[in-house]
Design the sequence.
């Protein structure tokens, strides 16, 4: 299912790219010969000798597995942000239209297009009226099953809103991809998510994660929390 979606997306992108290329060729008055030369120049040279089909298949399988893992992590990353009220889940359910792109010389918006914002275009501290997800005004979610602000439960709520009746299927698939041995989504989230998140939002010596992971140990239970910064 994951790979099928990726292939469909790649096919759609290739169709769009081909249309862009055709329009550029027409605009620049490029004849068919010029087009073939441009196409050949953009392709990667083939390796010398015959191709080993088994080796190629192994590389392709490895690439597919890596792509699937990346998609699963990205999905969880988005769901975490939705659970904190940073990203607008209505964009994933098509109950809110995507904001229009600014013109080249327009001032940039205060927030990214995917963020949950109020009528003033700024982030909100509380869910808007009729919003399908709850999120803490304190900006803190904890790894504590049964707790009202449990991070795992909040992520699962985001899956339920987005995938509806297919939520169990997607949830189990993600757990199997992220933790192949035990299929323990919670264990991966507590042990690996913040490491990925920190790398994603770090460059050179600057570290600027959206969420922080304070942790401390209580009797018989380790409680992990993710905290999103205040905007005020």
Sequence:
């Amino acid at each position: 299912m994951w790979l099928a979606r990726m292939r469909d997306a790649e096919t759609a992108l290739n169709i769009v790219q081909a249309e862009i290329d055709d329009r550029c060729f027409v605009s620049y008055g490029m004849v068919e010969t010029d087009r073939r030369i441009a196409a050949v120049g953009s392709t990667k040279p083939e390796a010398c000798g015959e191709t080993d089909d088994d080796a190629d298949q192994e590389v392709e399988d490895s690439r597919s597995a890596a792509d699937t893992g990346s998609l699963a992590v990205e999905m969880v990353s988005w769901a975490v942000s939705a659970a904190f009220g940073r990203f607008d889940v209505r964009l994933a359910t098509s109950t809110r239209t995507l904001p229009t792109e600014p013109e080249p010389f327009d001032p940039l918006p205060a927030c990214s297009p995917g963020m949950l914002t109020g009528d003033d275009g700024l982030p909100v501290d509380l869910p808007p009226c009729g919003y399908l997800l709850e999120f803490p005004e304190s900006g803190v979610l904890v790894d504590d099953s049964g707790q009202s602000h449990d991070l795992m439960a909040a992520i699962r709520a985001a899956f339920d809103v987005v995938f509806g009746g297919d939520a169990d299927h997607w949830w189990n698939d993600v757990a199997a991809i992220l933790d192949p041995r035990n299929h323990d989504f919670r264990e991966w989230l507590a042990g690996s998510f913040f490491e990925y998140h920190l790398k994603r939002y770090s460059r050179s010596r600057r570290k600027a994660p959206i969420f922080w992971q304070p942790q401390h140990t209580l009797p018989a239970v380790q409680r992990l929390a993710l905290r999103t910064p205040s905007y005020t």
